[in-house]
Design brief:
This protein is an all-alpha fold. The chain has a single domain (64-271), classed as MetI-like fold (Orthogonal Bundle), CATH 1.10.3720. It has helices at residues 2-30, 35-38, 54-62, 65-96, 102-112, 121-130, 137-141, 148-158, 163-171, 176-184, 189-204, 208-213, 222-231, 234-259, 261-271.
Length: 275
């Protein structure tokens, strides 16, 4: 019976994987097709001829795709680093210190996890505009600096360490910050990697917030730029070029995920060890 259940779950995972990956494969195939082949009434899943790279030439020679990707990289990279620092320090506080209002503060963190991010978009936009952060990297990144779910995951992992470990380190002359920096952080690399990669991929793929706080081409992110190619300039570049641009900006997030896949799984499992 257990073997049959195992096979059933494997089959479900395989079917789900195929359903999820087919649109991506189709988009990649379209990026290698000429315009007339894409718009024909006879649908093609695979390109009729190999080696057609005109769509990619258009993307790299006639658009600012590298600039757009640089903006996305800065936004995702810096905000993810800050998020790791903020989440780890908050989790350290919740795990190893006792102070008035600790439970209430942690309840607020948990409560923030159930609030959809889109609910706060309007207020965040007005605040960002009043601070003069429109069309700036800081304005693009600031809303991603804190994440309740990341604080929760790191706190759950830190709770697996006994408070006596910190007390023993203090006996040997280790300060709170040294304990955090020299002992706690190095021993939690899988969780830190999970928080960083999940933050990086999520921020890299975000669309709405960068669209709202940028209105010049120099500050557009890759995702916003691709949709603008499709809406405003698609008649010049064609569907194939738009798909080529989409494939190009997909590469970094996929590469990061594949490189750190094992650490991500290990970090998620570690974060669920103790409640």
């Amino acid at each position: 019976m257990k073997k049959e259940n195992h096979l059933f779950y494997q089959l479900v995972c395989i079917v789900t994987g195929i359903v999820l990956i087919l649109p991506v494969i189709y988009a990649v195939n379209i990026s290698f097709m000429p315009q007339d082949e894409i718009l024909t009434t006879n649908l093609h899943f695979f390109p009729s001829k190999l080696g057609y790279l005109e769509n990619y030439k258009v993307v790299f020679m006639h658009t600012r795709i590298l600039r757009f990707m640089w903006n996305s990289l800065v936004m995702a990279g810096v905000s993810s680093i800050v998020r790791v620092i903020v989440a780890s320090l908050a989790a350290f506080s919740f795990s190893f210190f006792e102070y008035r209002g600790k439970k209430a503060l942690f309840a607020l963190v948990v409560g923030s996890m159930i609030i959809p991010a889109d609910v706060l978009v309007v207020q965040n936009y007005f605040t960002t505009a009043e601070l003069g952060l429109i069309n700036t990297y800081l304005g693009m990144m600031v809303v991603f600096f804190i994440s309740g779910i990341n604080i929760f995951v790191m706190r759950q992992n830190f709770l697996s360490y006994s408070i006596s470990l910190k007390e023993a380190a203090q006996v040997d002359g280790c300060t709170n910050f040294k304990f955090y920096l020299k002992i706690l952080m190095p021993s939690n690399i899988p969780v830190i990697t999970t928080v960083f990669i999940s933050s990086f991929v999520g921020t890299w793929n975000t669309y709405l917030w960068p669209l709202l706080v940028t209105n010049t081409d120099a500050m557009r992110t890759a995702q916003v730029a691709v949709t603008m190619l499709n809406n405003n300039e698609g008649s010049n570049y064609g569907v194939g070029a738009v798909m080529a641009a989409a494939v190009v900006i997909l590469v970094p997030s996929v590469a990061v995920f594949l490189l750190f896949q094992r650490k991500i799984v290990g970090g998620v499992m570690a974060g669920a060890v103790k409640g």
